Prior knowledge:
Elements: H1 7-30, H2 36-45, H3 47-62
Amino acid sequence: MAKSSSAAAGGAGAVYGIGFFGAVVWNWQQAETFWGYPWGVIESFFWPAFLVFELFKGMLAINGG
């Protein structure tokens, strides 16, 4: 039987958690209206998706797409 390890998964969760709190702080500072604050918290959950989307958009622009 193969021995499985979940130690690497714990490290990835910690990195995501630190990134989440950093995104909350960033989005909180950028909010200008009342609804900007809750939207900033919601947006912070999905910051990796926004990051990848912008990365792909930039790669497409470089390649002439």
